[in-house]
Amino acid sequence: MTRFFLAALAAASIIAPAAAMAAPAATQIVVTGQGSSTAMPDMATENFTVSTNAGRAADAAGDNNARYERLTKALEALGVASGDIRTTSYNVSYTLPAPPQPAQPGNIVPAPERSGYFVYRGVAVTLHRLALVGKAIDAAIAAGVTDIGGVNFGIADRKAQQAQALRNAVRDARAQGEAMAAAAGLHIVRVRSMQQGFASMPVPMARMAADMGPAPAPPTQIEPGSVETQASVTITYDAQ
């Protein structure tokens, strides 16, 4: 019985290396898949600037504060939460008056540049209802906002859209890998490695349209475009 066991073990030790040597080596296929996910935005961010100027710092700051207070009250009256209105920057600077320029015959004297104290306040407003985008702009202008930096549309649940873009990228990579393997007379047997590449969400352009009705002051209308998230993955497959 012992001799039979030892003989079987010796035979297995001879056959196993031979079988391992006979197994074909896997061929690695490396592909980069691209994927995207498109959806309509459900939120927007507006950027405003309140700029004031006066000979005294207190006057410039007081004017700025008054405009900001009118802005916040007007936005809250529209239903914007106070937590969605935030100051992103605040700056006070002073500019010396330019020395007077003597008039020369035949030359036009340029208008003097503004001097004194300048107060700049940046304000970002997050809107969770797109119907308020145009109304918020009109309210800001009426409150005394001096600059509107733009409207950025987005999606509140960005992770869900990014996950969908990644799933599409993995499907694209799999299709590429299977096509390459089939062309070489192989088939994919396993995933060896997987690495995420870039993921981007371009800001859609805002389209503005004016009401052509008889009203003397038509409200601001802004129509958002769709938001597209793009992703890429690099996958290494083993094929035989």
Describe this structure in words.
Helices cover 33% and strands 38% of the residues. The chain has two domains: 24-40 and 158-239, Translation Initiation Factor IF3; 43-95 and 115-154, 2-Layer Sandwich (Alpha-Beta Plaits). The longest helix has 26 residues, at 158-183. The chain has 240 residues and is an alpha+beta fold. Mean pLDDT is 85; it is low at 4-12 and 207-216. It is elongated. Helix 2 (57-77) packs antiparallel against helix 3. It is built from four helices and nine strands; from the N terminus they run H-E-E-H-E-E-H-E-H-E-E-E-E. A four-stranded antiparallel beta sheet has the order 3-4-2-5. A three-stranded antiparallel beta sheet has the order 1-9-6. It has a two-stranded antiparallel ribbon with strand order 7-8. It starts with a helix and ends with a strand.
Write the layout of secondary structure elements.
Elements: H1 2-22, E1 27-39, E2 43-54, H2 57-77, E3 85-95, E4 116-127, H3 133-143, E5 147-154, H4 158-183, E6 188-200, E7 207-210, E8 220-223, E9 227-239
Antiparallel strand pairs: 1-9, 2-4, 2-5, 3-4, 6-9, 7-8
Helix pairs in contact: 2-3
